[in-house]
Design a protein that fits this description.
about 250 residues; mainly alpha; two-stranded antiparallel ribbon; 10 helices; 2 strands
């Protein structure tokens, strides 16, 4: 990793940590009512329990919808990969997405929020950090499990498995956790997750269908990790022949 990339990595972790912590402490209310600081052991135990919250009708609907959208987008995968070769100017716009959406950055940010909450004795901040950690662990486990089962080659060839996109799954998992505070937090979080997903396609590291299903997988992972939290809406990409869009869906 170059010095500039290392600096960008550190800055990204700091921004995510400070931003999430600030929202956690400034938006206390319904989202933080009666929430206490969980121990790291409880976070890990609840992560295991979170897998038991995966098989619900709503989660099945999200996965089915994500799978259908990915299938609809798949005919355009190869053409889009050829049409969007990486360039210096485009990389300047999207380059940070590859760092922001990395599992290491996402996990470090979640751990930072949890640690700040424990040190400052803020039950709300610690609880949110615990939510983020559980969502990250579940999303990563599901993503890796599917990747090594499907074993789809990346469009750039030789850099690992492609389906689904891990960057998309972990960032959409983070966004879905933060969405519990409402659209003022959820909207920018989902917008950033969409930016990360777009970067993966632009950088030729993933196909469009990879990031679409990865987004759905991240949403489901966060819902399982925060099964007792109400999510007013989620934002996901949708596709149709010759077009793409972002769709807002209200859920319970």
């Amino acid at each position: 990793m170059t010095d500039s990339r290392s600096t960008r990595f550190a800055v990204t972790v700091l921004v995510w940590s400070i931003g999430a912590t600030a929202h956690a402490q400034s938006l206390q209310g319904a989202a933080c009512a009666d929430r206490s600081a969980p121990s790291i052991g409880r976070v890990l135990t609840d992560t295991v329990r979170g897998f038991g919250h995966l098989p619900t009708r709503t989660n099945a609907a999200w996965l089915a919808g994500g799978g259908a959208a990915a299938l609809a987008a798949s005919p355009a995968d190869d053409a889009l990969a050829r049409r969007l070769p990486a360039s210096g100017a485009v990389d300047d716009v999207f380059g940070s997405g590859g760092v922001i959406g990395g599992a290491a950055v996402q996990f470090a940010a979640a751990m930072s929020v949890y640690t700040v909450g424990r040190v400052s004795k803020s039950g709300c901040t610690s609880a949110i950090g615990g939510d983020l950690l559980r969502a990250q662990l579940i999303a990563q486990a599901l993503t890796l499990g599917i990747q090594y089962t499907v074993r789809r080659e990346r469009p750039d060839h030789g850099s690992g498995f492609s389906f689904p996109s891990g960057h998309s799954s972990v960032t959409f998992a983070t966004a879905t956790v933060l969405q519990q505070f409402g659209w003022k937090v959820g909207l920018p979080a989902y917008a950033l997750a969409s930016y990360v997903a777009a970067q993966r396609v632009e950088a030729n590291r993933h196909y469009l269908s990879d990031v679409i299903f990865g987004a759905a997988l991240g949403i489901v992972s966060a819902r399982a990790a925060t099964a007792t939290t109400k999510h007013a809406f989620v934002m996901v990409p949708s596709v149709a022949p010759g077009s793409a869009a972002i769709t807002f869906v209200r859920v319970n």
